[in-house]
Amino acid sequence: MTPFVVSFKLALWTMLILLPVGLFIGRWLAFAQFRFKPWIESILLLPLVLPPTVIGYYLLVSFSPDSLSGSLAAQLFGQPLVFTFPGLVVASVLVNLPFAIQPLQLAYGSMPMDIREAAWVSGLSTAQTWWHIELPLIWPGLLASATLVFAHTLGEFGVVLLVGGNIDGSTRTVSIAIYDHVQSFDMQSAGWYSAALLVFSLLALALVRATSGSSSLTNTSAASQ
Amino acid sequence: MSEPAQTSEQSLSVALQQHKPFPLDVTFRCHAGEMLALIGPSGSGKSTVLRSIAGLHTVEHGLVSCAGQTWLDTKNQRDLSVQARDVGFVFQHYGLFPHKDALENVALAVPSHHSRQQRRKIAMSWLERTNMTGLELRKPHALSGGQKQRVALARALARDPTVLLLDEPFSAVDQQTRRRLYRELAQLRSGLNIPMILVTHDIHEVQQLADSLCLIHRGKSLQQGDVQTVFNSPKNREVAKLLGHQNLLPARVAKHDEQSTWYQLGSCELVRGPSNSLPTGTAVTLLIAPSAITPRQEYSNDARSINRLQGCIRDAVGMGDEWSLRVHLDNVEKSLRFRVPTHAVDAAMMMSGQRVSLEILSSGIHAISEDSQT
Questions:
Q1: Which domain CATH number covers A213?
Q2: Which residues constitute the domain of residue A65?
Q3: 3-state SS assignment for residue A154
Q4: Reported ipTM
Q5: With contact defined as beta carbons under 8 Å apart, do B97 and B110 qualify?
Q6: pTM for the whole thing?
Q7: Cβ contacts of B99 on chain A, cutoff 8 Å
Q8: pLDDT score for A224
Q9: How many domains does the structure of chain A reveal?
Q10: Is A225 part of a structural domain of the chain?
């Protein structure tokens, strides 16, 4: 597999796993009130502020076959997680948690309460309310979440290098390939890879901005007034 | 907690009590076809009562039953879900689904045992009844405040509820639209044989729309009854003040005759009101209805004139087609406030410092015993 295929495969898997997780945790954090909520939110936001190498270090240690968590994970996946693609996916999912959850938590949180209550008193169950009312209203948040996770995974470097190593065809992503090419003074290849990532990231962010600008949520408060 | 008496099958019976996060002690019932107004100042707990009926708020102790079904009975750990309570609820800001058009907003509330086509048909008929024909495909952001309110009302009724709950539904529309919506609601409700609860802090709204009222203050229901009865005969001074009465005069029962009860105001003035059974000498507060006061330009020195009080204008404000007056009484050290049509008085007389006689209609006097002040 070329670095591009590895990167896109990793981003796709990370996004597919994190979307339902983000939908569930984002909704829970937006609506639930409990004592330890600030702690839970802080833990989930940690990947935003910690250097990727710190997270990578801890994941490397916990994925090690010598550790309890590492051996349990190895049994679960049928192979050790360190320096393998499944390990890379697990690490990527953990690192991208805040990018998946934050947009969705904000989207749920900006929905006026009386819209959900109106759905309940109209006889809609919690599941029906989610499907007919909440999901259509938070879709810009969902799109933002998916795009951010995908784009961020493509650009992830520190964690990928520490947990995945640099195995060509298996864990060597675009960002690591750029690093390798620069190390070997192949600036032209590094330039192509960099330009590709730059264009993709720009397109992804523009897409998020454009959709959030014309979102249903921007009309939500006006409609409820 | 006092439990509401057994009521007819179709009526709504409510008894709620809680201590936290704020005290609540409210009991009332509302019959089918009746519109009961929950009235009280902002923060009095009236919206919480409405939300508790719908199941959107949980109280510590409560008993709510409607149409022969118990929705909440904390003693027996019965607490039906919001969906199972079968209420029609109009929110203060309507809570319309912003991504759905008016028809879809209403159709979503039609019970799911109907086919999709039937649901749309029922929704269309409710939109027609709420005068929304032709606007079915508009989304909420393209509707005016009054139109949103109509869609919200149609949605609330589309599920064929056993009770209709209206949470300050007119607060977000202008005065002109409000008057039109009052009229439309009055027309619509004549065909509804379910209990209807209207939350408001506007006594004029209550007088125009409701059959009965329940006054709530600091989470406690103070008085319930027919609107005019409660308004004209508040059971104590606090209720009178909360209903907006300003003309409250301290007095004492002087005597009774066959048709009237006489009261002594201050040291010498006597006024005559409707007969009651309060013992002679009882200290009372007299409530004087503003509509029962007529100012007379001729000043009488005869303080013993029946139901004619002397005073001095303190404020006279012309407000379009009427004057708003505050007259300070000579012998009671209190003021009476009232309005008079511009055409009925001499404008030259309406100036601060002018002495006037106030003629009080006997039927506009209500005595509140000092014993019922708490």
A1: 1.10.3720.10
A2: 3-219
A3: helix
A4: 0.83
A5: no
A6: 0.83
A7: 136-137, 216, 219
A8: 41
A9: 1
A10: no
